[in-house]
Design a protein that fits this description.
The longest helix is centred in the C-terminal third of the chain and has 31 residues. Helices cover 83% and strands 0% of the residues. Helix 2 packs antiparallel against helix 3, helix 2 packs across helix 4 and helix 3 packs across helix 4. The radius of gyration is 14 Å and the shape is globular. The chain has four helices and no strands. By secondary structure, it is mainly α.
Length: 93
């Protein structure tokens, strides 16, 4: 697999809905609402490419990060559901 900038892309694919949701949620929500999120995004931007290469080369790194990213994606999914509920209740759609 070709090296990318993004761990989520390596785990799920460049155009996968989880990759896109994580990209939005990490940078636009978690990083702005939480110091942990801010620090995570900062480290992700610094080391993401190198870590993504390791995900393609080492099964244990893929296993570990897939668990972490599944948990983060669940938080992002809950945020997305809340946003959709707000839009639905506003009768915008």
């Amino acid at each position: 697999m070709e090296s990318t900038n993004n761990i989520a892309e390596v785990l799920w694919g460049e155009r996968n809905v989880r990759t896109i949701r994580m990209r939005v949620w990490l940078s636009e929500v978690w990083a702005k609402e939480s110091m942990w999120g801010f620090q995570f995004v900062l480290l992700y931007r610094i080391f993401g490419r190198a870590v993504a290469r390791q995900v393609t080369r080492r099964d244990w790194v893929r296993w570990l990060l897939s668990r972490l990213f599944q948990a983060l994606d669940y938080k992002a999914y809950l945020w997305e559901c809340k946003q959709l509920e707000i839009v639905h209740n506003a009768r915008v759609v």
